[in-house]
Input
Amino acid sequence: MSDISSDLTLFNELVEVLMKEEELHPVADRIEAEELYSTIDLSLQSAGMVDEQFKSVLKEVLVSTPKTATNLFFNQLFGGRQSKAVLGDLLAVLLNNSMYTYKVAGPQVGIEQEIIRQSCNLIGYGSKSNGTFPTGGSMSNYMALVMARDAKDPNSQRKGMTQPMVVYTSIESHYSNAKNASFAGIGRDNIRYIASDAEGKMIPSKLEEQIQKDIKDGLVPTYVNATAGTTVLGAFDPIHEIADITEKYGIWLHVDGAYCGSVIFSDKYKHLVSGVERSDSFSYNAHKMLGTPLTCSIILVKDKKHLYESFSNDADYLYQTDGDNFNLGKTSFQCGRRNDALKFWTLWKSVGTDGLQQIVDQQFDLANVALKYIRSNSDYTLYSFDDSISICFNYKDIDPTELCTALYENQITVVGFGAFKGETFVRLVTINANNEAVDILNFFKVMEEFVEKHPNLKRIAEHVSEEV
Output
């Protein structure tokens, strides 16, 4: 058996390999999926592998894995690397605490609760508020839906669903809402997808119309999911107007800020979630805008009683000391739970709230660089709007699916595509706060040079005519 000291030495060696590789080759050499197992030895066998061979395989895996922290990765709603957060995550792995009791987590409980308290203060929740760290944004939305269900029908926990509940969300909201309605026993057919305006924001008048119709039909409006940063356009639903409606009809309001809810740290951009203090629950992902390693998701609840009522369960073998306020398993969905708070705490502690604000603001600054470039160039068509870090565009009428796939397969840059109201486009996400203006302009440079070298890329008009 290897000892930890020698493995940490190997780890440091591999880190140096990765850092150099990221610098020299920001986009990983792509391995065709059907060729993966014949290219790298990923097999598990009876005999162990000797150290040098083991090291060699690990290097191959590192070099071939998509590099999400480089200045040419714009594909997902995360990217970059905050070093102090990485430090915290490494320490969490070494400590290997589970976060269900104070007995096994000790000061880590205080670290998690301090993040939650400060987050609640930032959004204007009162003294009854609290929260927890779920496994991701989808789970945050699920927990909010379960609390909404139980608040509307407290008997549902024991007797099952006794009312025909319906839930509401924007047509542009995250796909987890459909899964969650199924998991919670409400049913996918009982989701009402509310139309969005030209900028991708939920239309409150359409929401109220649908609620009134459902009440007339004998259904029970239970939950509204508003979005702070839609997946494609990065749009922010109008929370104040939605809250007027949910308060009027007694409906739980959850604000899904998984993508862009971290604007709460920015004096300049927190107006985008104005009204969040009126919600019943709010979630955001520090592994997105704030750059912590995956995963780091937080859900906050205005009244912590809902966490206890929906997720607490007695377990004499587990909760033996210290009381409910320090035994976090009483308010979380899962029992065994890794320490996702430490990496966020080491980042926040080291840079302060002011530093987190700078991280958020930098992403909008980078988005503005991209917007300015696109608006000044007639070869581009812009589909997105101000106050978003999702920059959506097309270049020279080239089919965006064709372009993005070609850029990826040729190891030029990694960027995705999206669609809105029948239009498909390239979606550039400026979420890597380690980038600078020169990196955004370099993206356009390498893309344009690639197009110039590949004049046969399919055009949108050709793609449409083929479909017809």
Remarks:
- The CA atoms of residues 121 and 439 lie 35 Å apart.
- The two ends are 63 Å apart (CA to CA).
